[in-house]
Specification:
Layout: H1 3-17, H2 32-40, E1 44-55, E2 61-67, E3 70-76, H3 78-89, E4 94-98, E5 107-112
Antiparallel strand pairs: 1-2, 1-4, 2-3, 4-5
């Protein structure tokens, strides 16, 4: 994904979540309005868990992400790996958006649930 596309998507998500009050019914998942924006932008977004997060001797980062469709193991960019590691160590679920299946090269964002 190009840097410009990633920046555009990030700007849309940031705008949709800025100063937004969430009803108690939405507080345990992804608010429908935001999920709809991500889908309308043409991205796949799912919630799931991180099974492992680590680093190879070569310096690249490995993550296994599991959602309702199965598990996806790949090299993730450092920014996404750091979030995956935090989620794993905190035993938290994540919301992952990607341009295609949720492999590292396709990632658009990673959000950690409380």
């Amino acid at each position: 994904m190009s840097q410009a596309t990633t920046a555009d998507v990030s700007a849309v998500i940031a705008q949709a979540t800025a100063d937004r009050k969430v009803s108690s019914a939405e507080s345990l998942g992804v608010p429908r309005e935001i999920a709809d924006l991500v889908a309308a932008a043409g991205f796949q977004a799912t919630t799931g868990t991180i099974t492992f997060a680590g680093q190879y001797a070569t310096g690249t980062y490995a993550v296994q992400y599991n959602d309702q469709n199965g598990g996806f193991s790949s090299e993730w960019p450092q920014w996404a790996f750091e979030l995956a590691k935090d989620a794993l160590l905190g035993n938290r679920r994540v919301w992952v958006a990607s341009n295609g299946e949720p492999f590292g090269a396709n990632l658009v964002f990673v959000m950690i649930f409380p």
